[in-house]
Every structure is written in structure tokens, then in C-alpha cells.
Specification:
Elements lengths: L3 H10 L4 E6 L2 H9 L5 E3 L1 H9 L9 H14 L4 E4 L7 H13 L4 E5 L18 H14 L6 E6 L1 H5 L1 H14 L3 E4 L5 H10 L4 E4 L14 H7 L3 E4 L2 H19 L15 H7 L2 H11 L2 H8 L1
Parallel strand pairs: 1-2, 1-8, 2-3, 3-4, 4-5, 5-6, 6-7, 7-8
């Protein structure tokens, strides 16, 4: 079977745009896989929210990001792109960051050209490091990986800081330095998206804040973006926001219920049997039957 890195690389090279929803933990990653998506993006935005209940402003540490990503990788069988933020330091730190994420099974990593502490690409107040410093980070990342198919996704936030021309210039320079994919973050106009896809001489990634108000990038239909030649479309926060809406709906119904229960509200919750299937309890039972003594099985289950 092909390595996850090779699978991801081939999907990015395909004429079909690769849609990668963002997960916030292992459970959401499993749901993304079950929905039929071919690859997953770890959402630093979602990780910050689920682990700390804090905004995406660079508060999560390297060990926290690594541990959450490892759980995601172990929960699914499809390629996972890690979120490496700014690399957790300079080019020397990037070397370790890439080695650790590759070793634990990620198929690629996002690295961005913001100052640390970074912030969500659709927030105000972003700053970017010099092009020369970012080029050093990308070269370090490319040399640190042991698998040449491990994807280095170089993100530039230059559109918001210094304009689309700078973003295109940086994108091409990052690709020459060894990036496999260029992530043009937060373009605000369709023409900016088209220009980056057309003028950056490498596969280009765009992200969409699907289903919510407040994102800076216009919500262009997937097939239209594909026709423009985009390689990857990440949808980083939709799953996180959907989870918040779902939990809020359940709790509001619970609080308003005359008997304090939400019994029979199948529109709000999955069944216990469905959840056991989701988290793999039937597979655990099979392993118990295979490895535990019959006396133990009888004592546990009768």
C-alpha cells in the first residue's frame, strides 16, 4: 500500500481539487473520514478552541499540537496534514518540527510566514517575517524531511499585509526553496485568487470559511475553484463551528425541556449504538474474543 505521503502528493497533483476539511480532534477527524473525504487538515484554529477554549493566536505549544495531531493520525486511515504554525521558532526549530510531525505519521505540514505569536489568517493585526527568513525556514523543512513525498505547504499571509503582488512573489520564492504547495491565505477578491493560481508556478491552496460569516475570502464554489486550477481547498473551521452549533442546540433544548431531558430528540443526538460503532467498540469486542481467555470473556459478558 502506498505511503500516506505519496497518496497526498498524488491527490495534490491530480486535476481534481483536493478538499480537506479541518478537524479539531480525533473524533471529528473520524467523522470527516466517514463522510468520504480523502484527506484531513489539522486545524490549529480548532485545536486552540477544543484544547484551550481560546482563539487562534499562537497560544498552543509544540507538544500540545504534536499530541493532538498524533491522536488524529491514529484515528483515521487517510492522509493527515499537520498544522505547524510558524514552525515554533526559527529555521532551526523548524528542523525539529518537521522531523517530529513526519515521524508520528503526518503526510505533510503547514508552515506560515507570520511573526510569532501568529494569529488566524482571517483575523486583523497580522504581521509577516521577511521573505529571506521564511526561505530559510522552508529550506530547513525540505532538508529535514526523510520522505521526499512529505508535503511542505508554505503559507503566506502577505495578501493582508502588503498585497497580492507580494504574496505571488513570495509564493514563487517559497516553491523554489522547496515548498510543494503554496497556501495563499485570506485573499479578499476572486481576482486575487485567480492571480495566485495563475501566477504562482506551483500547486496553490486556498481555504474557505464555509457556512459562516466573517471570513475574508469569497465563498467560490468548489467546482469553480477547480476550473481555475486550484490544487487544494481547505475548509478549516466549518467542522468546529458545526460542533459548537450542535452542542448549543442540544443544551438549549435540554434547558427548555419541561422534564429536563431531551428524550426522543433524534434530530439532536446520535444513538448509543451509532456512537459505539463510530468509536470502534465492535472492533474492540473482536480483539477481546481473539486474545482474552474464554473464562475472562464469560466473566465480562456472561
Amino acid at each position: 500500500m502506498k505511503r500516506k505521503t505519496t497518496q497526498l502528493k498524488e491527490m495534490l497533483e491530480s486535476p481534481e481539487a483536493l478538499v480537506m476539511p479541518g478537524c479539531y480532534d480525533a473524533l471529528s477527524a473520524r467523522l470527516i473520514e466517514l463522510a468520504g473525504f480523502k484527506a484531513i487538515q489539522c486545524s490549529g484554529f480548532g485545536f486552540a478552541a477544543s484544547i484551550l477554549c481560546k482563539p487562534d493566536i499562537g497560544l498552543l505549544t509544540f507538544p500540545e499540537m504534536l499530541a493532538q495531531t498524533r491522536n488524529v493520525v491514529n484515528a483515521v486511515s487517510i492522509p493527515v496534514m499537520a498544522d505547524g504554525d510558524t514552525g515554533f521558532g526559527n529555521a532551526i526549530n523548524v528542523t525539529r518540527t518537521v522531523k517530529e510531525f513526519e515521524a508520528m505519521g503526518a503526510a505533510g505540514i503547514n508552515l506560515e510566514d507570520q511573526f510569532f505569536p501568529k494569529r488566524c489568517g482571517h483575523m486583523e493585526g497580522k504581521q509577516i517575517i521577511s521573505k529571506e527568513e521564511m526561505l530559510g525556514k522552508i529550506r530547513a523543512a525540505a532538508e529535514a524531511r526523510t520522505d521526499p513525498d512529505f508535503i511542505i505547504n508554505a503559507r503566506t499571509d502577505a495578501v493582508a499585509v502588503s498585497g497580492v503582488d507580494e504574496a505571488i512573489e513570495r509564493g514563487n520564492a517559497y516553491a523554489e526553496a522547496g515548498a510543494d504547495l503554496i497556501f495563499g491565505e485570506a485573499p479578499t477578491e476572486m481576482d486575487e485568487i485567480k492571480r495566485m493560481i495563475r501566477e504562482i508556478h506551483a500547486p496553490v491552496s486556498i481555504n474557505l470559511f464555509d457556512g459562516v460569516h466573517g471570513g475574508k475570502t469569497p465563498l467560490v464554489p468548489i467546482k469553480e475553484l477547480e476550473s481555475w486550477g486550484v490544487a487544494r481547498i481547505s475548509i478549516p473551521v466549518g467542522v468546529t463551528f458545526a460542533a459548537v452549533r450542535g452542542v448549543k442546540n442540544y443544551l438549549e433544548a435540554l434547558a427548555k425541556s419541561p422534564d429536563g431531558l431531551a428524550a426522543g430528540r433524534d434530530d439532536l443526538v446520535v444513538s448509543f449504538d451509532e456512537f459505539k460503532e463510530l468509536v470502534g467498540l465492535p472492533e474492540i469486542r473482536k480483539l477481546e474474543n481473539k486474545y482474552l481467555p474464554p473464562t475472562t470473556i464469560k466473566a465480562k459478558y456472561g
